[in-house]
Amino acid sequence: MSTSSSKAIAILGSTGSIGTQALEIVRAFPEKFSVELLTANSNADLLIQQALEFQPNAVVIADESKYLMVKDALSKTFIKVFAGLDAISQAVTMDSIDIVLTAMVGYAGLLPTIEAIKAKKTIALANKETLVVAGQLIQELAIQNRVPVIPVDSEHSAIFQCLVGESESSVEKIILTASGGPFRGVNKSDLSKVTKGQALKHPNWNMGAKITIDSATMMNKGLEVIEAKWLFNCDADKIEVLVHPESIVHSLVQFTDGSIKAQIGLPDMKLPIQYALGFPARLKNNFQRLDFTNYPTLNFQKPDFETFSCLRLAYEAMKKGGNLACILNAANEIAVDAFLHEKIPFLKIPEIIEKTMGNLPFILTPNLDDYIATDKESRIFATSLL
To answer: Are 11 and 19 in contact (CB under 8 A)?
Structure first.
């Protein structure tokens, strides 16, 4: 366990975009944070490098074929080395951990997050799929175990910051901003010709490949809408999306008296990561500051639900509830992976998702086993459509 003045952190997905930036925060505040656990999917080289620098209690490499490589590289240290997805779920329960940053990509983050909540660890949530897939279950577990879930996504962090000190009943609506991705304003016929290289060029944010494609289809915003419903206990009809190309206003909350709070800053993921890890304290840093004179005009427009049908499908899943968002997420992961491997064209992504949502059995009140089965069946069905 950490000292009273510092927090011992587990970073799930330490070699990804969020994980590496979180370690930059730890590096900048060695007196505030220590690293207790690092996990990676298959990037053994970077995991080894991180472990040697930060000296965690343990590391886990999900890809079991890389276990011996990691173990040999760390053999002269006291760091424990484990392998496999199950090991991640076990490692997060270590008594010495204070806060778990879940930065794994996709459905894989669900079970470790559940185990961390059961072990009463504070959750810094960067894995939006956890709440998309099983929001009701996560919400109930967090309440039952009195575990705070602090959002790391820039938009949800913005809403979280706007809500500090406000009562839930005073919220009229939540407005999530979206950059619009690389294809904002493009018509549907032009999207049919989109290449992988074009889709991976996000105008404002530097993110991993899967999230960047989700941003290009606007599914990322759809997943965030579903996540917001569970994070902030908000009805579907109170959550809106506003396209804001500059990505300076990170999200807004409108209250019952008509006033609006917005959280504003430069597009830099280190800001919401630092806020989540340091909460409730605001830690002084030397990050670049926003100069409003560099942004004399801020633009806002309604999203195009027809061209970007992934956003429409996400709203449908949120409103219907049950296991539909789990189906949506699984089909999206399969379709995005196929696009990244250049097996399908860009517009096939929403087509696969919609067909999978229309063909899998709907369960109104799913339990964890139902979610696991739904995810598996959805992936099989979506794969059959490739």
So the answer is: yes
Sign of CA dihedral 31, 37, 43, 46: positive
In this structure, are residues 313 and 222 in contact, taking their beta carbons and an 8 Å threshold? yes
SS3 7: strand
List the structure tokens of 124.
């810094």
Q: What is the enclosing helix (H) or strand (E) of 39?
A: strand 33-40
Phi then psi dihedrals of residue 152, to 5 deg: -110, -30
pLDDT in tens, the chain (386 residues): 555 579 999 999 999 999 999 999 999 999 999 999 999 999 999 999 999 999 999 999 999 999 999 999 999 999 999 999 999 999 999 999 999 999 998 888 899 999 999 999 999 999 888 999 899 999 999 999 999 999 999 999 999 999 999 999 999 999 999 988 888 888 888 888 888 888 888 666 666 788 889 989 999 999 999 999 999 999 999 999 999 999 999 999 999 999 999 999 999 999 999 999 999 999 999 999 999 999 999 999 999 999 999 999 999 999 999 999 999 999 999 999 999 999 999 999 999 999 999 999 999 999 999 999 999 999 999 999 99
pTM score of the predicted model: 0.90
Q: What is the largest CA-CA distance in the chain?
A: 62
Both tokens assigned to 306: 């027809």
Amino acid at 58: A
